[in-house]
Amino acid sequence: MAIEINGAASQATPRPGQCLRTFLREQGNFGVKKGCDGGDCGACTVHVDGTPVHSCIYPAVRAEGKAVTTIEGLATADGLHPVQEQFLEAQGFQCGFCTAGMMMTAATFDDEQRANLPRNLKGNLCRCTGYRSIADAVCGHGPDAHGPDAHGPDAHGPDAQDAGADVSGAQSPAAVEPKSGQLGDNVPAPAGPAVVTGTARYALDVPADQLPGLLHLKLVRSPHPHARIVSINKAPALAVPGVVAVFTHEDAPQQLFSTAQHEHYTDDPDDTRVLDNVVRFIGQRVAAVVAESVGAAEAGARALEVEYELLDAVFTPLEAILPGAPVIHGDKDAVATRIARPLDNVVAEVHAELGSVEEGFAAADFVHEHTYRTQRVQHVAMETHSAIAWLDEDGRLMVRSSSQVPFLVKRTLVRLFDLPEESVRVVAGRVGGGFGGKQEVLTEDLVALAALALKRPVQLEFTRTEQFMATTTRHPFTIKLKAGANRDGYLTALQLDVITNTGAYGNHAPGVMFHGCGESLAVYKCVNKKVDAQAVYTNTVPAGAFRGYGLSQMIFAIESAIDELAVGIGMDPLDFRLKNMVRPGDHMLSTTPEPEEDVHYGSYGLDQCVSLVRDALDRGKERYRAAGLDDLGPEWVTGEGTALSMIDTVPPRGHFAHTRVSLEADGRFAVDVGTAEFGNGTTTVHAQLAATALGTSAYAIQVRQSDTDLVEHDTGAFGSAGTVVAGKATLAAALELATRIQTVAASLTGVPLADCRLVDGAVECGDRSVPMKEIYDAARLQGVRLATDGNWGGTPRSVAFNVHGFRVAVNTGTGELRILQSVQAADAGVVVNPRQCRGQIEGGIAQALGATLYEEVKVDDSGHVTTDILRQYHIPSFADVPRSEVYFAKTNDSTGPLGAKSMSESPFNPVAPALANAIRNATGVRFGELPIARDKIYLALRDRTLVPN
Predict the structure, then answer these.
(1) Cα–Cα distance between 274 and 37 in angstroms, integer?
(2) Beta strands in 402-476 (DSSP E)
(3) Most C-beta atoms within 10 A of its C-beta, which of 107, 429, 674, 891?
C-alpha cells in the first residue's frame, strides 16, 4: 500500500529499516527536520492519520496505507492553518528550525491541552526563544496581547512606564516615535511565512535534482584519548558496496590551522590538521569514508582497520600543567603555531597587576576567598553541523554550510587547499541556531577535500552524538578568587587565578581567556586588581566559542564574590554595586593600566538597569504578599539575588562588514549583506535600518545575505556584531542611496534637493510625488547608479549592560528550587525592534538557566563524553523556563547605528550569579560550582546548618 503524503499517494517505497523522517525528506518534504534522531527534540514531528508522531523513530513502513501530513501540507487551499497564523502573529520562533515540529504538535491541541502546555509541549524543544513567544502563539496571543497570560506577572506594574519601558516589549523604550516598518517598530521577521510553511531552506534543504550524483561522507573517529596512528587499511572499507573513497591523513593537506574563525586567523593557535596522524581526544576524526548513501558510508567507516600506538593522556588542566604531565602538542613550534608554552600544555596566558593587591587586602575590613568552577556546556543548536560541497560547471568549489561565518570559511578553505579566492564560493542558508558553535570549520574542510578529489557533490551531516563528543563546548573555568572591601562599601582588591580547559585543541582559547578577564573586571572601580590566567590543553573534547565568550564564567565568580563582600560588611548588594560600578568618565580597566583606546561610553544605562530590576523585585514581593502567596510553609525559605554585566559591543581589533543597497526596477529596495541569519534577527534589523534611512517600510526591503558572492567581505555573525557592525554598514549605504535618489528626483522636477523627501514608494518634491519606479527609469537614462556601498570596521566601540534579578524559594527538606520571579533589565541603546530584542533576552535567559541548573557535558576518567544524546543532556523544556520580565533602559548610543547597541550574547551573562546569589540569600549557602542541581542543594542543606539572613 502506498503512503499518502499531504494528500497525494507516494510512488516511492521505504527502504528496509528506514525511518519516516528520512523517507519524507527524500520526497522533498524539507520542513521535516533532524534534531536528534532519538525522539527527543520533536523537530521531525508529522501527523500520521491525524496523530502527531516523531518521525525519526517511526518506521516508514508503518505509514503504508496511512495519511501522513507534514508542515508543507498543514495549510489548505483556503489559507494557512490557524496555528500557522498564530505563530506568524506572535513571532513564535527565532532560528525556526524547531518551529515546524512545534506547530505540528500544537495543531492537534484542544482547549484542555492548550491549558497545560508544560505537559503537552514536553516533547518539543526550542533552544532560541525561551518559549514565551511559543506559548503566546499556541494560545493565540498576538504581539499586542497584554496581561499576565501574555507576558507573565507584572507586565504593567505601576511604575513600569516611568521606570523605563513596558515589559511586554510591545512599545519602543527608546526616545523615538516608531514609524511602521522602521526604527522602533515590531517588524515581523521577513522569513516568517517561509518558516511557518516549512519552505525556509537550511543548509541541507537542497532538492536531489539540483545535486546529481550526491555522495555522503561519514567519519571514523578515535576511540582513544591520545594515540599515534600506525597504519590504516582502507581495503575493507573500500570493499563495502557503495563506498567510493576513503581519505586519511595521507590524503589531506598537512598545513596546520585552527578550526576557530576570526577576522585575524592569527588570533588562534595553528594546532590542527584536517586529518592528523596523532589523535588527542576520543572522537577526533581519523578518516573520512565517502559513499553513495549514508548507510554505505557508515558501513565503510565500521569496516576501516586502524592500528594505534597508545600515548599517555591527561584529562584535567590542573594535572596537565604539572611537571612531567603528558605533553599534548609537544611536536609544535611555539613561535610558528602561536602556542604560548607547548611543552607545558599552556596555549595562552596573561599575568597582570594594577596597583598592589597586597596593599588592597591590608586595607580591607572583609575579605572573601573562594574557588569557583564552571562546567562544559554544549550549544545544542537544533540544526547540527552540516555542509555540502561540489564543483560548478566552471570547476569552482561551491560550499553550502550551516555557518555563522561564511566569508571566514571561504578564507580558510582557500588557505588550506591553496586555491585562488575567486575559485571558492560559500553560502549559508538559514542557520538553525549557532550560539558560537558555528564559528568553526568542522565540516566544510572535509567535504571540500572530498569534492575536489572526486569531482562529485559530497554531503556531511553530524549526528547529535557527534555534536556532543566531537564539536566544541563552553570552556570550563576554575577561578580562585580573593576580594576585599572596607566598611565604607568600597572594593579594595580583586585577585583572580584562572585556569581554563581548552580541551585537545586551542580553538578560541586565547580569546575566551582574555575576554573573560576583560569586562567582568572592568565594570568595577578598584585600584588594586591582579589576574593570573592560563588556557590549558587536555585530552578531552575541545572547547570553543560559546555565548558570552568567557564572560559568563568569570562573571559567575565575580558577581558571587560581590554579594559575599556586601554581606560581609553588612551592606545591601545592589547598593554595594552602585557604589563600585563604573560610570561615565571612569576608566574601564582589567589587565592593562590604560583602557582600550577605542572603547567608549557611547551611552550609559547601567544605573537605570539596576533601578529597573530593584523596583520590579519590590513590586513582585508586594504582589505575592497581597495575594497571600508569600508564606509557602515552614520548610520553604525565600531569597532575592541580583548580578550585573558589561560587554563591549564589538570584538577587538576590527570586525568588518560591507553592505550594498540598491533601488530595483519594481520600485522596491534590495539590501545585500554578508551576515548569516540564525535567529539573531539581523535580517529584520537590516531591513528596518535601511527603511528608516530611505523613508520607506521594511516591507519594501528585500534582504539577500550570507553569500560570499554578494558583497566583498563580512567578518561574520558573532560577538554580537550583527546590528552594530553590519547594521552600521547598511545604514551608511542606505543614507548615501537616499541622497542619490533625492538628487535624481530634484533633477526631474526642478525642485531644490532640500525639498525632496523620501516616503514609502515615492519621493515627494513640493506638490509632486514621483514614484520610485520613475526614479529608477530616470536614473538609468541619466547614467546614475542607484546602488551604493557601505563599510564599517567595528571601531569605535561602546559598552552594553545587563542586570538580572531573581526571587526564589528553596525547600530545605528536598532541595527543590522554585523561581518566583525573574527580571532582566538591558541597556541596548535605541532598540531597533523591541519584540525581537526581547526575544533575544528571553532566549539568553533560558539558555543560561539550563547552564546554571542542570546542563553539563560530562567526561569520564578515560576522556569519554557520557552525555552524548539529548535525553542524557537536559536542555530547558517548556516546563523549565519561567516567564521573565524584560525592561529596557532609555539610552541613545553615539557609536551604534541610529543609537542601537548589541544584545545577543549579553543577556546570558548575569543569570547564573543572580540565581546563585538568590539561593545564597535564601539558604545562607554559597554554591560556587555549576551546575547548581537539586541534589547539590539538598546535600548542602543536609550537611550544613542554615545561616540566618
Answers:
(1) 27
(2) 424-428, 458-461
(3) 891
Query: Does an H or E element contain 309, and which?
Result: strand 305-310
Neighbours of 726 (CB within 10 A): 32
Nearest to 561 by CA among 501, 491, 638, 637: 491
Which string of DSSP letters, residue by residue, matches 600-637? Answer: --S---HHHHHHHHHHHHHHHHHHHHHTT-S---TTEE
Residues near 792 by beta carbon (within 8 Å), at least 6 away in sequence:
656, 657, 725, 726, 728, 729, 732
Among left, alpha and beta (phi > 0; psi -120 to 50; other), residue 719 is: left
Q: Are strands 67-69 and 45-48 parallel, antiparallel or unpaired?
A: antiparallel
Model-wide pTM > 0.70: yes
Distance between CA atoms of residues 365 and 490, nearest Å: 10
What distance lies between CA 66 and its chain's CA centroid? 39
> What is the Cα–Cα distance from 604 to 617, expressed in whole angstroms?
22
Across 173-207, b (16+ Cβ under 10 Å) vs e yields bbebebbebbbbbbbbbbbbeebbbbebebbbbbe
- Picking from 786, 761, 685, 695, the residue whose alpha carbon sits closest to that of residue 729 is 685
Find out whether 507 and 436 touch, Cβ atoms under 8 Å. no
Antiparallel, parallel or unpaired: β 8-9 and 4-5: antiparallel
Q: Which is it for strands 529-537 and 491-503: parallel, antiparallel or unpaired?
A: parallel
Average pLDDT, the chain: 94
Instruction: Report the distance separating Cα 80 and Cα 198, nearest Å.
Output: 12
Q: Could you read off the pLDDT of 209-238 as tens digits, one per residue?
A: 999 999 999 999 999 999 999 999 999 999
Alpha-carbon span 747 to 737, nearest angstrom: 16
- pLDDT score recorded for residue 720: 81
DSSP string, 220-289: EE-SSSSEEEEEEE-HHHHTSTTEEEEE-TTTS----B-SB--SSGGGS---B-SS-SEE-STT-EEEEE
Grid coordinates of 342? 607547548
List the end-to-end C-alpha distance of the chain, in Å, as a whole number. 70
**Amino acid present at 630:** D
Q: Which residue is it, cell 520580565?
A: 885
Span 14-60, pLDDT tens digits: 999 999 999 999 999 999 999 998 999 999 999 999 999 999 999 99
- Return the C-alpha cell found at 365: 575590613
At 134, which helix (H) or strand (E)? helix 132-138
Rounded Cα gap, residues 434 and 515, in angstroms: 19
Q: What is the pLDDT of residue 326?
A: 98
At residue 241's C-alpha, the angle toward residues 235 and 245, to 5°, is 50
Q: How far apart are CA 420 and CA 81, in angstroms?
A: 49
How does DSSP classify residue 796? S
Tell me the three-class secondary structure of 487-513, residue by residue. CCCCEEEEEEEEEEEEECCCCCHHHHH
Nearest in space to 640 (alpha carbons), one of 915, 911, 940, 844: 915
The 8-class DSSP code of residue 425 comes to: E
Q: What CA–CA distances, in Å, run from 747 to 452, 477, 568, 663, 758?
A: 53, 64, 73, 17, 15
Instruction: Tell me the per-residue pLDDT of 828-858, one tens digit each, with 9 for 90 and over.
Output: 999 999 999 999 999 999 999 999 999 999 9
